[in-house]
């Protein structure tokens, strides 16, 4: 602003001197006759008008704003602006879980015969066939088998060996002959596989599930069985006073003894007359309800039995009695009754009823099996 005022002042002085010069040039040539009069006010006004025109004609000087210094403010960090630190989850292993040695799964279909809830008459015989697949890593040899794991046995054998060797990935059909219970109702027998070491395994995840047969028994049944040539007797059940109160009869014609002793049977048990063992394999007699719902002793396979009466039979007598496949109803016999038999190994012998509890169904027997002569 100071420089601008100085320039304006200088311009005014210059204009005044110029006006004075012009006035002098316009004076009349005869100076003597003319008196010069300078109108100062008029000159000043003229100069002011010129300055105004010059100011209007000149563009205004740009106004320069003083620079303003702005201090940058660091953004305030808030919890919402914080980027969370994410730790990636470990990648799942692409290696599949190792298969078990003994592992099975249901075939297609698993029930080849006898679908669930098939209707049966009391005492009806039938053949159940399952289809199973070896989904493990071990070969199933003929030392593998299937057996009742729980539920109704339905006159099943203690175990059924596999029909042939089954490699991993292969399927098999395995069958078992069964008998429908005597009383009406729904019955289910649950089965599993057993390996050569008698370790159980089934189907499904972890091999924990059994496969089963389920039937509906309807009607009263018309099958009638008789206890061979046995003659029913009435007697009070004996109360044993020693481990063997009825020792085998002594007969010089009898061969040596293979096995003898007492044993207790409960419904659905099976006894091996060659070893006097219960439910251990190779059984000769089953103890279960017959077609009329009465507990009876029934031969298994090629075993033969026949009632003998109240006297102890000799070897030759049991060998000569006609032995058949009829069942002996226990309630019709009574204590002290003898039954002759021939085992599945061709050995002859006899059993004696020692006691029968009609409430629990427990049957106490004494057996005597002769060795081969």
CATH topology of the domain at 104-217: Immunoglobulin-like
Count the DSSP helices.
Answer: 3
Question: Using only CA atoms, what is the Rg?
Answer: 61 Å
The level 1 CATH classification of the domain at 104-217 is Mainly Beta
Shape: elongated
Residues in helices, as a percent range: 10-25%
List unreliable stretches of 5+ residues: 22-38, 78-83, 221-252
Structural account:
The chain is of the alpha+beta class. Among the domains are: 114 residues, Immunoglobulin-like (Sandwich); 114 residues, no CATH class. 13% of the residues lie in helices and 30% in strands. It is built from 3 helices and 19 strands. Strands 2, 4, 5, 7, 8 and 9 form a 6-stranded mixed β-sheet that branches. A hairpin with a 5-residue loop joins strand 17 and strand 18.
Write the layout of secondary structure elements.
Blueprint: H1 2-25, H2 40-57, E1 104-111, E2 118-120, E3 125-134, E4 145-151, E5 160-161, E6 171-179, E7 185-194, E8 200-201, E9 211-217, E10 257-265, E11 269-272, E12 277-278, E13 285-289, E14 295-299, E15 304-309, H3 315-320, E16 328-329, E17 338-342, E18 348-356, E19 363-370
Parallel strand pairs: 2-9
Antiparallel strand pairs: 1-3, 3-6, 4-5, 4-7, 7-8, 7-9, 10-19, 11-12, 11-13, 13-14, 14-16, 15-17, 17-18, 18-19
Helix pairs in contact: 1-2
